[in-house]
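Lecture 7 notes: from sequence to structure.

We start with a single chain of 66 residues. Read the sequence below before looking at the structure.
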Amino acid sequence: MRHNLTKTVRELLRTFTHAFDSYRPELHYMRGPGPKCHAKRAGVASAAPAGAGQAPALREIAKAHA
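Now the structure, written as tokens:
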């Protein structure tokens, strides 16, 4: 009887601990590059002429999706 009561109490504590845990990992994951990275890349991209080094088919695809 005591073993069953102890097991039940442990399960209840585990359930309530997880239910009221304030840590939410989905709020802390990396979402991608930030504004500083975009600004740095914009400076590099403006140095090369648009479409330089691309195959003609890739330029057409880029124009269609722009």
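The mean pLDDT is 78. Keep this in mind for problem set 3.
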